[in-house]
Amino acid sequence: MGNELKERLDGGDYCLNGWLAIPSGFSAEVMAQCGWQSVTVDLQHGVQDYHSLVSCFQSMGAHPVTPLVRVPWNEPGIIGKVLDAGAWGVICPMINTPEDAAAFASACLYPPHGKRSNGPIRAAAYGEASAYQTIANAEILVLPMIETRQAVENIDAILDTPGISGIYVGPGDLAFSLGKLPALDREEDEFLAIYESLIQKTRKRGKVAGIHTGTAAYSARMIKMGFNFISIANDSGLMARAARDVIRETHEVVKSLSSSNKE
Q1: Which family, according to UniProt (predicted)?
Q2: Whole-prediction pTM value?
Q3: DSSP state of 75
Q4: Which of 100, 115, 150, 178 could link 95 by a cystine bridge, Cβ 3.0 to 4.6 Å?
Q5: Do residues 135 and 2 lie in contact, with contact meaning Cβ atoms separated by under 8 Å?
């Protein structure tokens, strides 16, 4: 028992993270077989709920991916429940201050390092004898989302908060905070400079630098820049993109065949 994603990150490798917005165990099962190192169930902006989260975790269990969750907010009740369900890491939105970060870490960790309540109903193998409680604090990834100007300004204090494993950049809300429309793969110098600074500050502390992206090409750029935990789109977005591509390609082939027949 342990967090294979954390082991890989600690070893210096980058990790690709899948993202589940669709409340379906089948969608989770398919994504879990695609080569991601971890898969995150999104309880904030996806259409998942707690029951669908558990179904997704059950479907992913037979495959070599680490289950993670993005919770809706920095609230200890839901944080404890997703960890009890078997999440090996929690991504939490809108962590803007060291106080926010401390409250988040406390909700993720058992005493004496935090205030998480005991009751890991799935995480501890349905109540069977387990060492889960003895390793959870060391193994759980605690990843605050950095998605406002305030969070960027407070990044040193957030990263130095005990229990915090690193950061996860949310480009959409960060754009709102900077007076721009939300989008994932930002090219503006202002964003790239922020990313470089965040990477430098996480790297010198040996912590995780994560970001959400929209495409493979941009993800590769972010890895080269220094991010080591990268999400690419989500299951619904990837499905829609593949569908649009195959429809476009079919129309193009039909046009090509029609032109050939006229010649």
Answers
A1: Belongs to the HpcH/HpaI aldolase family.
A2: 0.95
A3: -
A4: 100
A5: yes
3-state secondary structure of 216: helix
User: What does the alpha-carbon distance between residue 181 and residue 215 come to, in Å, rounded to a whole number?
Assistant: 18
User: CA of 41: how far to CAs of 10, 50, 149, in Å?
Assistant: 23, 10, 26
Taking alpha carbons only, the member of 232, 235, 166 closest to residue 199 is: 166
Residue positions annotated with a catalytic role: 45
Residue 125 pLDDT: 72
**Angle (deg, nearest 10), helices 76-84 and 98-108:** 40
Q: How far apart are CA 240 and CA 242, in angstroms?
A: 5
Cβ partners under 8 Å of residue 66, min gap 6: 3, 4, 5, 6, 37, 38, 39, 88, 89
**R_g (Cα) of the chain, nearest Å:** 20
Secondary structure in 3-state letters for 151-176: HHHCHHHHHCCCCCCEEEECHHHHHH
CA 66 to chain centre: 11
Closest CA to 104 of 146, 73, 83, 134: 73
**Residues 26, 33 contacting (CB under 8 angstroms):** no
Other CB atoms within 10 Å distance of the CB of residue 252: 10
Local structure of 51: helix, strand or coil = helix
Two structure tokens written together for 152:
């960027």
For 92, 166, 237, 238, 249, the CA distances from 244, given in Å and listed in that order, are 32, 36, 11, 10, 8
Positions of the chain with pLDDT under 50: none
